[in-house]
Specification:
The chain is of the alpha/beta class. It has 2 domains: 72 residues, 2-Layer Sandwich (60s Ribosomal Protein L30, Chain: A); 161 residues, 3-Layer(aba) Sandwich (Alpha/beta knot), CATH 3.40.1280. The chain has 9 helices and 11 strands. The protein has a 7-stranded parallel beta sheet with strand order 7-6-5-10-8-11-9, sandwiched between helices. It has a 4-stranded mixed beta sheet with strand order 1-4-2-3. The termini are far apart.
């Protein structure tokens, strides 16, 4: 059985209660701080078995530590009703995915969470990461995702290069992002089935990952800025794809 974890932040806890209430074992709420949306979620019949504790801020901080917990912490263990999405399951589904984000060794949990949030906001079908040398879905990542981590599949693969080959084989165009790429993001057609590949904080796209991309493009930047944070770059790429798709043609 999976180990229980702590999740904090209003949006993250609310999303868990709405999506997998059987996995939410208990919730601690800071007294006199009950956001209406969270209160409504906790009042649903499916949430009736969740143990509720109304406690002081000091108690919340003993549980979650000081920081941006927003006065709510949950203890969570994924239930059988929330199965893990594998790459095979993602690629074999009907309708097939049309927009996937692939992260190559993004190691900061807050960047992972922000990328999940951007991907969900742009209508992506999933985010794919490697098992090794990648951030995992920690409490900090869930908090940064602001509920997106509970709504958007995070698919973990053993071999990222192999995963990109499989993604390409089902008809998605694989577009990498790199600051040193010659061609601009804004010169690429992003309207078809697409996987956007972004590199990690330290070295960007690795060589083998880059070789698996059909094309590598950059975000035009003015001096002296040389590159963007990976989550910012994800937002630029994703919402350019969303803009092109909404424009049609």
């Amino acid at each position: 059985m999976a180990k229980a974890e702590l999740v904090f932040g209003v949006h993250a806890v609310r999303a868990l209660v709405e999506r997998d209430p059987a996995g939410v074992l208990e919730v601690w709420l800071q007294v006199r701080r009950e956001p209406p949306a969270l209160r409504r979620a906790l009042s649903l019949p499916a949430a009736s078995d969740i143990a509720m504790h109304r406690v002081s801020r000091e108690t919340i901080e003993r549980i979650a530590g000081p920081g941006a917990h927003q006065g709510v912490v949950a203890r969570y263990r994924r239930s059988a009703a929330a199965p893990i999405v594998t790459l095979d399951r993602l690629l074999d589904r009907t309708p097939p995915p049309s927009l996937i984000v692939v992260l190559d060794e993004v190691q900061d949990p807050r960047n992972l969470g922000a990328c999940l949030r951007c991907a969900a906001g742009a209508g992506a079908d999933a985010v794919v990461v490697a098992k090794r040398r990648s951030a995992s879905l920690t409490a900090a990542a869930r908090k940064a995702a602001s509920g997106a981590a509970e709504r958007l599949p995070l698919v973990t693969v053993t071999n990222l290069a192999g995963a990109l080959e499989r993604i390409a084989a089902v008809g998605l165009s694989v577009i990498g992002a790199a600051a040193d790429a010659e061609h601009s993001l804004y010169d690429v057609d992003l309207r078809g089935p697409l996987a956007i590949v972004l590199g990690g904080e330290e070295r960007g796209l690795r060589r083998l990952t880059r070789e698996k991309c059909h094309r590598v493009v950059s975000i035009p930047l003015r001096d002296p800025v040389e590159s963007l944070n990976v989550s910012v770059a994800a937002a630029v790429f994703l919402f350019e794809a969303a803009r092109q798709r909404s424009a049609g043609g």
